[in-house]
Design brief:
Length: 116
């Protein structure tokens, strides 16, 4: 499933509610995102995870933007060293922000999995 949210696209209240817990991203990214493109696969095989990452990267090639990927604790060290990573946030719920190049590089790592 692919959905688009933001001003003049979809429900702005839903966009705001889904992003309220991310706080101000200006200090992380250098800008505040106004729209979101969500790419979701309702499956959990390794192939599904790779296809989701590669499809997201292809969409980013067309639209630009920054990927926001939640990480498991054991993924942080691997992801932090990949090309295209902008920042990895610390804490009990780490998140990586990066480019399409980041998503493609991560998808090539052994044992690659997206969080649900």
């Amino acid at each position: 499933m692919v959905s688009l949210m933001g001003p003049d696209v979809g429900d702005k209240a839903t966009f705001d509610a889904e992003h309220v817990d991310q706080g101000g991203q200006q200090h992380l990214l250098g800008f505040t995102p106004t729209h979101a493109v969500n790419v979701i696969a309702f499956c959990s095989s390794a192939v599904d995870h790779v296809v989701t990452a590669v499809l997201t990267a292809a969409i980013m090639d067309l639209t630009g933007g920054v990927a926001n990927a939640e990480l498991a604790a054991d993924q942080v060290a691997i992801v932090a060293e990949l090309p295209g990573v902008i920042v990895v946030t610390p804490g009990s719920w780490p998140v990586a922000y990066g480019s399409a190049e980041f998503l493609r590089a991560w998808a090539e790592q052994p044992g690659f999995r997206l969080l649900k």
